[in-house]
Amino acid sequence: MRIITISVLFFLGFVVCVNAQEYFRISVDFTTKTKPAEGKANLTKGKVYYDKYTKELIYDIQFPEKEKWIVQDSRMYKLVDDSVYFGEEIPSLNEFTVFHLSLNSNLSYFGLDQAQYTIGKVEKNKDLIVTYWNIPQQIQEVISSIAVARKGNSLYSVIIADENNQIRSKQFFKDYIKKGGFEFPGTIVQIFYDENQQESYQVMEFKNIVLNDNENESNYHYRLDK
Description:
Elements: H1 2-10, E1 25-35, E2 42-51, E3 56-63, E4 67-72, E5 75-80, E6 83-89, H2 98-103, E7 118-125, E8 128-134, E9 143-151, E10 154-162, E11 167-174, E12 177-179, E13 182-184, E14 187-193, E15 199-211
Antiparallel strand pairs: 1-2, 1-15, 2-3, 3-4, 4-5, 5-6, 7-8, 8-9, 9-10, 10-11, 11-14, 12-13, 14-15
């Protein structure tokens, strides 16, 4: 369960919006399949709600058990029947999720062009444009390189290497869903590598996107009695 939680929050990703309409809210059905390097595969299904102004991320889990995951600021809570059974401090990542970046049209470069990253070099590889990003000094002890590949104007893949130049994560974005000027990856495949380069897999699939929903306000906000 922990790898699912970290991975969902990490997702880290994206989009192209070419008209004048502003997108500020998204809900989408998701299915997450994970296969750790050791252990059994896991399946999680539910719906995600996100509003980019409040930056409140809500996962309404329907399978394997009904529960909610609420991410507010730098805290994550898990609830069953509106009762908190788990809470922890986490990095404030909501602005770097696929949901936030897509609503802000920052997908194609993985949001790096909006952060403290600069382009190191650009290469063309068949139908892909690969951009290598310079890493801010404060995180060079953790990450040594990030390579972002685009196919056309859409994000295709992201490869992250650690301080020892070992690949720690590969992400692939495909099956894009388009609604007007809005674009969202229908499938995100991520491969994680541990210190021994053993692989863990996660596949997230999305469908039934709803944008700018103003009729179900309570779905996008959750008041916690702390």
